[in-house]
UniProtKB/TrEMBL annotation:
Pfam families: Methyltransf_25 (PF13649). GO terms for biological process: methylation. Residues 51-144 form the Methyltransferase domain. One of its GO terms (molecular function) is methyltransferase activity. This is Class I SAM-dependent methyltransferase. The lineage of its organism: Bacteria, Bacillati, Actinomycetota, Actinomycetes, Kitasatosporales. SUPFAM superfamilies: S-adenosyl-L-methionine-dependent methyltransferases. Keywords: Methyltransferase, Plasmid, S-adenosyl-L-methionine, Transferase. InterPro entries: Methyltransf_25 (IPR041698), SAM-dependent_MTases_sf (IPR029063).
Length: 208
């Protein structure tokens, strides 16, 4: 743990897991596709890939990826979120931990993908973002992918204003040895354009 509260903890107090799960359950019942992130990731992965879901929340994405045949490890700092994940998928790997201290969790390397969806990066504790990116990059195998989704304006964030720009984010990724491969405006793969308010980015660790 870093000793510094992340923005998610400040917003929720670490007590929002069940409410969060119920919101997505209601969306699914009303006919919404709640598995867009998992479908996006699967299209980039070989079968039975190893995936690190960083900031996994209630496990919605990791559970779906496991159903699709991938091997997933979820990490989150919100105990209420992890309680839901462990209840819904007790045989999967769920770890309590701060992403800024990811190197202390004993995960090792060799992941085919590290995923940080759901505004994980903008909600990190201020100042820890470059360190988190370095840890996620270090967890990847050569040729592995970092996939992130983040809001870029208040309309796409649970915050009054954005905390991270794409220029800053790409710089942190470059510092961590990652290269931008693709960028989209949605998890459905719509083309990214300047000012669209949301970015799904795919960065790659060099193969050698």
């Amino acid at each position: 743990m870093t000793g510094q509260r992340d923005r998610w903890a400040e917003l929720t107090g670490g007590q929002s897991g069940q409410d969060y799960a119920e919101r997505f359950a209601q969306l699914a019942e009303s006919g919404h596709d709640i598995h867009g992130e998992a479908a996006f990731c699967t299209a980039l992965l070989n079968p039975a890939a190893r995936v690190l879901d960083a900031g996994c929340g209630t496990g919605r994405i990791a559970i779906r990826l496991a159903e699709l045949g991938h091997r997933c490890t979820g990490v989150d700092v919100d105990p209420s979120m992890l309680a839901v994940a462990r209840r819904d998928a007790p045989t999967q790997d769920w770890l309590f931990g701060d992403l800024a201290s990811l190197d202390t969790l004993g995960l090792g390397q060799g992941f085919d993908m590290a995923l940080a969806a759901g505004n994980v990066i903008p909600l990190l504790a201020p100042g820890t973002e470059p360190m988190v990116i370095r840890h996620l990059a270090a967890a990847l195998r050569p040729g592995g992918l970092l996939v992130t989704g983040m809001g870029l304006d208040a309309a796409h964030l649970p915050l009054p204003e954005p905390t991270v720009t794409l220029t800053e984010f790409d710089h942190w990724c470059t510092q961590a040895g990652l290269t931008l491969r693709q960028r989209y405006a949605t998890w459905s793969g719509d083309p990214y354009y300047q000012g669209c308010g949301y970015a799904v980015s795919v960065h790659c660790r060099p193969a050698t």
